[in-house]
Design a protein that fits this description.
Blueprint (H helix, E strand, L loop, with lengths): L3 E2 L1 H13 L5 H19 L1 H4 L10 E6 L3 H15 L3 E6 L8 H12 L4 E3 L3 H12 L3 E5 L11 H13 L7 E5 L21 E5 L2 E2 L5 H7 L1 E5 L5 H17 L1
């Protein structure tokens, strides 16, 4: 069976990759963004294979939160735009409050003059929802594996609008970055609401909560993508847990 990681183990893998292997966090984020970009093209392959369709007419909505998951979204949006697709970014958290690698990813798209729309209140959500309904692909980069507990009302409203948009006449594909926003990666229990993804591109390894039947209802197809952290780190982290379990 392929390995599955908990929230704490995911953090430890990143920590070891950065601190012991010297892989900068922004490199891990860039690798994640490349994977999201590649799978976005695969998800749209049937459409882009039609030579009568111009790539710039293919609308993609990238919806970014305030943490590293949002940073992955900003970076993926950049790659998709460079590839000639029509990308629009929607920030559901105040970009001024971003920190670390996510802030750098946002700064780059700003310097590229990519279209970024702030969606910080109900009026903004209603306006954005109309655009989401007319997208071919929606990328959910709102909440990552760090999420646990109830959703903030604003985020819950955004997620509900995305889920509703996926049933519009265009029926956009919904791709979740690492985990559908609202899903607890440890328990596999979805919040109300949780993004109902068609495709989840999760990084390094599956998450332990994915085996929960409730999680499977929102994950869609799950693909595991590498982001440059050697698999020996995953093996080491799993062995650490095994040793700890035997000692207790």
């Amino acid at each position: 069976m392929p390995p599955a990681l908990s929230r704490a183990q995911v953090r430890l893998v990143d920590k070891i990759a950065i601190e012991e292997y010297g892989i900068p966090g922004i490199v891990l984020m860039e690798n994640a963004a490349h994977e999201i970009s590649d799978y976005s093209f695969k998800a749209l392959e049937y459409l882009l294979a039609d030579l009568t369709v111009k790539p710039e007419s293919v609308k993609i909505s990238v919806i970014c939160g305030g943490g590293n998951n949002g940073g992955d979204g900003y970076a993926a949006a950049r790659h998709l735009s460079i590839s000639g697709l029509n990308v629009k970014i929607f920030a559901v958290s105040d970009p001024q409050k971003l920190g670390g690698d996510a802030a750098l990813a946002r700064q780059i798209v700003d310097k590229m003059n990519l279209e970024c729309v702030a969606v910080l209140d109900s009026a903004g959500i209603k306006a954005a929802a109309l655009e989401w309904q007319n997208s071919k692909l929606i990328i959910d980069a709102i909440l990552g594996t760090g999420f646990a507990g109830p959703l903030r009302p604003h985020v819950a409203e955004v997620i509900a609008a995305i889920n509703a948009a996926s049933y519009s006449p265009i029926r956009p594909i919904v791709l979740a970055v690492d985990i559908p926003s609202g899903l607890d990666c440890d328990t596999g229990i979805p919040a109300k609401p949780t993004i109902r993804a068609h495709l989840t591109v999760t990084f390094v390894a599956r998450k332990i909560g994915f085996k929960n039947h409730s999680a499977q209802e929102v994950l869609g197809s799950v693909l595991v993508a590498p982001i440059g952290a050697p698999m020996e780190i995953v093996d080491r982290v799993l062995q650490m847990e095994e040793k700890e379990a035997k000692s207790t």
